[in-house]
Amino acid sequence: MPEFTQVIVAGLSQGAIYALLGLGFSIVFLATRILNLAQGSFALWGGFVFLSMVAGAKIPLAISFVIMLILSAALGALTQLIVSLRSKPWRPISPDMAVLSTLALLVFFEGAAFMIWGPDPQRGPALENGVFRLFGAIVPWQLVWMIVGALIIATGLQVFLRSTWSGRAMRACAQNPMMSSLLGINVRRIGVLAFALGAMIGATAGILVSPITWLDYQSGGTFALNGILAYLIGGEEDVAGPVVGGFLLGIVQSALLLLPGTSGGLLEQVVPMLALIIMLVFRPQGLLARRI
Fold first, then answer.
1. In this structure, what are the phi and psi dihedrals at residue 238, rounded to the nearest 5 degrees?
2. Rounded to 5 degrees, what are φ and ψ at 289?
3. Confidence band for 58, pLDDT divided at 50, 70 and 90
């Protein structure tokens, strides 16, 4: 029983990070129809900059978190301006060009991280130290923060998209940017807002996961891959899709580690990719989206 509980807790906490990364992809794609592969670099830079402020500059955790949100929003807005530099409401950027541009930015951000923080892996500061027992399992408080943070952000994002003018404008711009522009919506500004929100969510994921894993300059690609998996498995049309996909992915990966020998670690990487291939063939819209 304690071993099973430990696996579930680890899977939920890991899935919470995947869910946040998937939400970052979701909010950007929802508003702009751009698959932002640079999303993983926002998590990478969020964790590294937060670590530098807390451990290096000795800035309190709360202040460092607020500063990091502002900086990540600016980085996300800059990314959108670079990717959509030559686009217009009546001439949006092609999906192929957008993907290649964000992939190039991901590589650039990882290279910049290598130059600033070096090749050695580092750990970030925990938001709360200590552990407690749950049905015999040892649960660090940091894992609780990861799960609660993901649920709060997902709920807030759902309210934003359904109940605010900006959220509805994002959906309109994704459906028809030219008509949205004619109706008075600033399509470029909505795109900047979506990228900024996605960067803030990604940076939060990097901050939450950095105390329990090693951050290095190549983590951006790993973050991006796990976020895309959560995003595609759950479905792109709703906030609940990436959340369910992320938690499901985290639990499955943790459960596979219970297999004897070294096969569990191998299957942890292979099975999610195999599941993604099967879903792309038989249900490409994801688990929760309407059948197409």
1. -150, 155
2. -75, 160
3. confident
pLDDT at residue 257 greater than cutoff 90: no
Measured CA to CA, the distance from residue 228 to residue 244 in angstroms comes to 13
Which among 236, 125, 119 is positioned nearest to 174, based on CA atoms?
236
Judged by DSSP in three states, 86 sits in coil
Q: Which long-range contacts (CB under 8 A, 24 or more apart) does 160-165 make?
A: 161/30, 161/239
| Burial bucket for residue 221 (CB in 10 Å: 0-12, 13-18, 19+) | middle
* pLDDT at residue number 179: 80
Sign of the four-CA dihedral 214, 217, 218, 223: positive
Going by their DSSP bridges, the two strands 137-140 and 131-134 should be labelled as: antiparallel
Higher pLDDT among residues 166 and 174, named by residue? 166
**8 versus 52: which is more confidently predicted?**
52
* Ranges assigned E (strand) in 102-153: 131-134, 137-140
**Token pair for residue 109?**
């951000």
* Rounded-to-10 torsion of CA 35, 40, 43, 47: -160
Average pLDDT for residues 260-284, to the nearest whole number?
Answer: 68
Nearest by Cα to 219 from 79, 114, 64: 114
CB 235 within 8 A of CB 245: yes
At 268 the pLDDT is 62
Name, in order, each residue with C-beta under 8 angstroms of 26's C-beta and a sequence gap of 6 or more: 231, 236, 239, 241, 242
Q: Is the pLDDT of residue 292 over 60?
A: no
Q: Find out whether 268 and 229 touch, Cβ atoms under 8 Å.
A: no
